[in-house]
Write a structure and sequence with these properties.
This protein is an alpha+beta fold and 427 residues long. Helix content is 42%, strand content 13%. The strands form two sheets. Strands 1, 2, 3, 4, 5, 6 and 7 form a seven-stranded antiparallel β-sheet that branches. It has a three-stranded antiparallel β-sheet with strand order 8-10-9, covered by helices on one side. The longest helix has 24 residues, at 238-261. The radius of gyration is 30 Å and the shape is elongated. It is an enzyme of class 5 (isomerase). Pfam families: FKBP_C.
């Protein structure tokens, strides 16, 4: 029968576990409206193929690897995933499509845009699906051949569920989170570190997966949450402190990378400051590169160059560092800050100063390699008022920062007694 002839909808779907045990009652949604009647033909066709996978004529032709010892579940990975293996402490979001052998239409499906959320510890999944999902990593798409012995049994549920019939399932593991515990963590409790450490490791793995899929904002949020949990946790001894520091170094390193990807250089600098506090910056060329990149984006060219030169001493032939150094020097030259820096601060605001500020702002606005720029120190009130006026005229944000983003003591001593004006491009 043509599926487009159906004009009824179930109020709730079938729970196969209940069907197999105590039975189910079908409730028809009388207020259902067939939205397909109002769709254009192209939209209607597109909606038909929102599910994953395709039918298979012969299961014997499939080249699959066994998942369990008895061979009840066989698998082929179509798209690789990543992160830590799943366990009963995870809640996952999945999409799937199930087919019988040599049938063109799926007998069961969950679409990607409306995934099924499953608590792996407490769910109504059939054993075959449960074991299949446990074998997957986040982001993975796999084809499974599932034996009837772990699915619908010898009887089945005719006519929809065939008796003693194997089936294939295409499963996409979209997301995995730690299942919330019964009650929040009390960070003041003694001997809580092991639980926090375990959850942070799972969060860290989720953050890496999000970064891999270029979801940098979500990844940064996961890494930040992990950092907060580690800092709030009471430590029992030096061994726990070493484990904490090791994880913090990984988290701050990934945070710096994410913030640079998101064009948030101030936050990237803050992460690098924490790495320096943990003695894991100046001996790490990758993080010196990230720190230099962030400093370049806020116009701190001399500090950025210092970090790049240090990184090049660690890796003299690194092409990425050489490219960033060339970009830094070009960007510094284009900003032409030297005349402003050399001014006497007591001079009145004259036409030359205004022209220099206007040129600097226009150069900054047109430079795609800068997103924030810190002004030279020592500007008087009249000069800062003109800079603010010029920024407003060019639709730039102008504000005062009172936070130090440098690492060197001599630079810090130079800036800690004053407030530096900062202008930024509109987001």
């Amino acid at each position: 029968m043509d599926p487009t002839t159906y004009r009824v909808a179930l109020e709730n779907g079938l729970n196969l576990k209940e069907v197999l045990t105590r039975g189910s009652i079908l409730h028809i949604n009388e207020g259902y409206e067939d939205l397909d009647d109002h769709l254009e033909p192209e939209t209607k066709a597109r909606k038909t193929f929102e599910y994953i996978g395709q039918p298979v004529k012969s299961f014997q032709e499939l080249k699959l690897d066994p998942v369990d010892e008895k061979g009840f579940i066989k698998k082929r990975i179509i798209e690789e995933g990543g992160g830590l293996p799943l366990n009963d402490e995870n809640t996952v979001s999945i999409a799937y499509t199930g087919y019988w052998e040599n049938e063109n239409e799926p007998f069961d499906l969950v679409k990607i845009n409306k995934p099924l959320v499953v608590d792996l510890k407490d769910n109504g999944l059939l054993p075959g699906l449960q074991l299949a999902i446990h074998s997957m990593l986040v982001g993975e798409l796999s084809l499974f051949l599932l034996s009837y012995e772990l699915m619908y049994g010898e009887m089945g549920i005719p006519p929809r569920i065939k008796p003693k019939a194997d089936c294939i399932f295409y499963i996409k593991l979209i997301k995995s989170i730690i299942t919330p515990k019964q009650g929040p963590i009390n960070f003041s409790e003694a001997n809580i570190f092991n639980r926090v450490h375990h959850e942070v490791k799972l969060l860290y793995s989720s953050g890496l997966t999000l970064h891999k899929t270029k979801n940098y904002m979500a990844a940064a949020q996961v890494f930040r949450k992990s950092v907060s949990m580690l800092h709030r946790c009471r430590l029992a001894d030096e061994d726990e402190e070493k484990i904490q520091e090791k994880l913090l170094i990984k988290l701050y390193s990934n945070l710096a990378i994410c913030y640079n990807k998101l064009k948030k250089p101030l936050q990237a600098c803050t992460s690098c400051n924490e790495l320096n506090r943990l003695n894991s910056l100046w001996n790490n060329s990758k993080m010196l590169f990230q720190n230099a990149k962030a400093l370049r984006m806020i116009g701190q060219f001399s500090e950025a160059e210092k970090r790049l030169r240090s990184a090049l001493k660690l890796q003299p032939n690194n092409e990425e560092l050489q490219i960033e150094l060339e970009l830094l020097l070009q960007t510094r030259d284009s900003c032409k800050q030297i005349t402003l820096i050399g001014r006497e601060t007591l001079e009145p605001v004259n036409d030359n100063f205004k022209r220099e500020v206007d040129t600097l702002i226009i150069n900054f606005k047109n430079n795609v390699n800068l997103c924030k720029l810190t002004l030279p120190s020592g500007l008087n009130k009249d000069e800062m008022d003109y800079v603010k006026e010029a920024c407003i005229r060019e639709n730039l944000f102008f504000n005062v920062i009172q936070k130090n983003y440098f690492l060197d003591k001599d630079v810090f001593n130079d800036v800690k007694e004053r407030d530096d004006p900062l202008w930024t491009s509109p987001d």
